[in-house]
Amino acid sequence: QVQLVESGGGLVQAGGSLRLSCTASEDIISIHVMGWHRQAPGKERELVAQITSGGSATYADSVKGRFTISGHVAKSSLYLQMDSLKPEDTAVYYCNVYSFYRGNNYWGQGTQVTVSS
Predict the structure, then answer these.
(1) Are 85 and 16 contacting, i.e. CB atoms less than 8 angstroms apart?
(2) pLDDT at 84
(3) Which of 17, 33, 60, 78 is the most core-located residue (most Cβ within 10 A)?
(4) In a 10 Å sphere around its CB, with 0-12 CB exposed, 13-18 middle and 19+ buried, how is residue 42 labelled?
(5) What value does the mean pLDDT of the chain take?
């Protein structure tokens, strides 16, 4: 069973930066899209950013211009550079990889990001 492991979360002051990383325990074949989602207390999980195997990236309006997603499909790895962080970015961030192969949809265990004002 493939496992995704996130790292890079932590506590940062408003205006600061963090870089999240996500690596897979083994290579994932036929990756279609990789993404970062987040869930704040009392709220539903939401898509933050995603990138297709072709390199096309999309972002939630709330993070456009501040976050940058990147990934290496061949290495099954994913990153999220978060700049100009705001307290409302506080959440658990989850890595997600969807593969065409059998429609496998993988999730990481999450990493906490806390932004203080």
Answers:
(1) yes
(2) 98
(3) 78
(4) exposed
(5) 95
Please give the residue that has the higher pLDDT: either 39 or 103.
39
List, in sequence order, every beta strand (DSSP E) within 14-107. 18-24, 31-39, 46-52, 57-59, 67-72, 77-82, 91-99, 105-107
pLDDT at 52: 94
Place of tokens 């997603």: 69
Q: Kind and range of the H or E element at 5?
A: strand 4-7
| SS3 assignment, position 110 | coil
Hey, what amino acid is at 85?
Answer: L
**Helix, strand or coil for residue 23?**
strand
Enumerate residues 6+ apart whose C-beta is below 8 A from 99.
Answer: 28, 29, 30, 31, 32, 105, 106
pLDDT digits (tens, 9 = 90+) for 32-87: 899 999 999 999 999 999 999 999 999 999 999 999 999 988 888 999 999 999 99
Cβ–Cβ < 8 Å for 96, 106: yes
